[in-house]
Amino acid sequence: MERRQPLGRIVESHLFTTVIVGVIVANAIVLGLQTYDDLVDRYGDTLNTLDHLFLGIFVVELVLRIASYRRPLQFFRSGWNIFDFVVISLAFVPGLRESTTLLRLARLARVVRVVRLLPDLRVLLIAVARSLPPLGSMTILVTLILFVYGMVGWTIFGDSIPQDWGNIGTAMLTLFVMLTLENFPAYMERGMDVHQWSWIYFVSFVLIAAFIVLNVLIGIVLNSMEEAREIERRRRVGIGLEEADIAPAPVMERMQMLRAALDELEAELARAPTR
């Protein structure tokens, strides 16, 4: 195990996480109240005191999380832990309190920590990050489709509808808007006023660009979500929170099946006639 069992289970427990999330939400409320000048004039000292109290709680939380590791340096092997450490340490950077803007940004960063504490939000963020490389390839594909259809649209409608198809840039922008099916009937109606058979152009574009690309995008997101969930599951197993998930139940089931098969084989051999 990477963590000391007692303290590690405490800092990763549902109750501990709920308390810290509650403190983060309260901190966010205080930050929001500090944007009202009349409230600051009346309760400014109280709001500042609460902010310092929240910071103290976060410091205690950070110390407990670091202490939950057998070797404190193991805490910094996780990117999320480094994020927590940096966000909380910003409040103690010399000269930061003299800059109102930087101080507010540092306080705001503490609110963003809620992503690190809530598993579902963390999975979503990991999924978004893992979907970026495939999305890059899909962006190239969509750009190629827009360029090809843009050139065809410019050739067919460039002279008759210059405001939408006057050049390749305008044509690609029109097609990009059509990807969302925004005003698609209007675009197709104006195109059919120019050429009766232009509906083939618009329908084929929607089928290829809108539906197919959208389905590919959904597939990428779903695959990234599955990968993110597996990463989160392995992380929790690594810190000892899901020992039940890695229990040798499947192995035991296979052993039982194998034993049953051996018993059947022995029974058949026993029934076989001897020579």
Descriptive overview:
Helix content is 78%, strand content 0%. It is flat. By secondary structure, the chain is mainly alpha-helical. Helix 2 runs antiparallel to helix 5 and helix 7 (119-157) packs antiparallel against helix 11 (199-238). The longest helix has 40 residues, at 199-238. The protein has twelve helices and no strands.
Radius of gyration: 30 Å
Give the CATH level 1 class of the largest domain.
Answer: Mainly Alpha
> What's the mean pLDDT score?
78
- Uncertain runs with pLDDT below 50, 5 residues or more? 241-249
Spatial gap, N to C terminus: 58 Å
Strands, total number: 0
Largest sheet: none
Give structural attributes.
single chain; Four Helix Bundle (Hemerythrin (Met), subunit A); Helix Hairpins
